[in-house]
Amino acid sequence: MKFGELKSIGHNIADSLASGICLLVGYYEIDIFSEAAASPAGYIEVDFLTGTSSGSPTSPTLTKVIKLYRDALDQLCASHGTSASSFASLTARFAVDRRYGRHFTVAVEDQSGRRSVDEYLGIPGRKLKVR
Known about the structure:
Strands 2-1-3-4-5-6 form a six-stranded antiparallel sheet. Strand 1 and strand 2 form a beta hairpin. By secondary structure, the chain is of the alpha+beta class.
């Protein structure tokens, strides 16, 4: 599996959750950014391999959706011709701030230790280009 394909999967799953229209798991009104901004931590970091989160507390519904994404990851990977075991880690950090507004950072690591961290702005997530 090419590393670029793993990065694509990471972006797709994080962008789906960021959009709030989580078709992959059957939920249609989730706002992870509002929940992230509602506490002093100011962010929610999701581990898609374990179905857990850290940072700001999450509502029971968002907690359930995050676990559903863990379960849906295998299906998404299969559609790309791989499996979730290709990832050593797959996390996304969702936050809101004055400079970037709604943004998320996706961190992907494969089993051989190759790692990538990409930042995305808005919904849908557009890659942040540094000049």
